[in-house]
Amino acid sequence: MADHLPKDISHKVHNALRLSKDDQQRWAKILGKKGWHGWAWPKQFGGPGWNAIQRHLFEEECALAGAPRVVPFGPVMVAPVIMAFGSPEQQARHLPGIMSGEVWWSQGYSEPGSGSDLASVKCRAERVSTTSGDKYIVNGQETWTTLGQYGDWIFCLVRADTSGKPQTGISFLLIDMKSPGVTVRPIIMLDGEHEVNEVFFDNVEVPAENLVGEGSKGWTYAKYLLAHERTNIADVSKYGRTCCAGSRWTGLRLMMTAMVGPLGAGTNCCCLTAMWASRSRQRRSNYAGGSL
Ligand SMILES: Cc1cc2nc3c(=O)[nH]c(=O)nc-3n(C[C@H](O)[C@H](O)[C@H](O)COP(=O)(O)OP(=O)(O)OC[C@H]3O[C@@H](n4cnc5c(N)ncnc54)[C@H](O)[C@@H]3O)c2cc1C
Q1: Which helix (H) or strand (E) holds 227?
Q2: Is the shortest distance between the CB of 116 and ligand 1 below 6 Å?
Q3: Ligand 1 centre from 70 Cα, in Å?
């Protein structure tokens, strides 16, 4: 890992300096060449097909080497949804660009007034038929869109149906951010940095083939994505690095806290403890055998 990671990038990570788009994408492309930008993907879609322990080891090695955390919106969030619910055409069109690190994705879930209460999203997508095929006309606003200023594509929860209960009217749409009518406006945070944005859709035309799965099941796909988002945000490898750099118990406690919050205590503590023990055993045997 360390041999392939550019030194200027690991220097920034180790010293908590801001990473540029170029830094993030250079590393994404290096991983992509080896089929590791989608390190949790199955072989069927071009990933390494690793099990949970192997994935954890990869993440830990990345953190130890000082690699940037992979920008998750493409490989960690939307890719599993496309694999599970997307059409073969969507899989063929989008997964290669995500794996290679060429295409930058953004997440369009939150709206003003629809954060925790996500099922209340109001961004409207009206389906219309034209001579050149069906399309959606999208009007509305996303907010807190992380690194949306770099986005090529954005996955959005949109309201295609206003009848019934809120959850049933939500669709999951893939939108090309270069489409006419898409505007990205920066939100400058208290530290003066530009990391999050507002994204506006003003009569944006989206081909109907960009709808993922069934129109009325967007809420199901949204929850499926969130399960991937949360395990990623727990950032176990970072806490592992804290363990190695400082007190092992402080790091372990931080790691457990991170996992227990989003996912529930029992299962994950057991799982992590097993991973921890397995990694320690492997390290001990490696040292004993003189291979490190
Ligand atoms: C740095 C950053 C980056 C982000 N990036 C993205 C992104 O890329 N894409 C995206 O879609 N979103 C993004 N988000 C949005 C994030 O997912 C939302 O902030 C989150 O869903 C919470 O919504 P909210 O901010 O509107 O808070 P609110 O929903 O208004 O909640 C405010 C407070 O009220 C509490 N609260 C809310 N409802 C209840 C309730 N029923 N009972 C008790 N307490 C309640 C919450 O816990 C919270 O403390 C980002 C947010 C941040 C801060």
Answers
A1: helix 218-233
A2: yes
A3: 22
Q: Are 123 and 141 in contact (CB under 8 A)?
A: yes
Chain segment 179-201, per-residue pLDDT in tens: 999 999 999 999 999 999 999 99
Tokens encoding 36:
């590791």
Of 162, 153, 74, 85, which is closest to residue 121 (Cα–Cα)?
A: 162
Nearest residue by C-alpha to atom 36 in ligand 1: 116
Angle at 29 between CA 23 and CA 34, to 5 degrees: 140
Question: What's the whole-model pTM score?
Answer: 0.84
Give me the domains of the chain, ranges plus CATH numbers: 104-220 (2.40.110.10), 234-292 (no CATH)
Q: Given the CA of residue 106, which atom of ligand 1 is nearest to it?
A: 8
> Atom of ligand 1 at shortest distance to CA of 142?
11
56-111 pLDDT, tens digit per residue, is: 999 999 999 999 999 999 999 999 999 999 999 999 999 999 999 999 999 999 99
Share of the chain above pLDDT 70, in %: 78
3-state secondary structure of 258: helix
111 labelled catalytic:
no
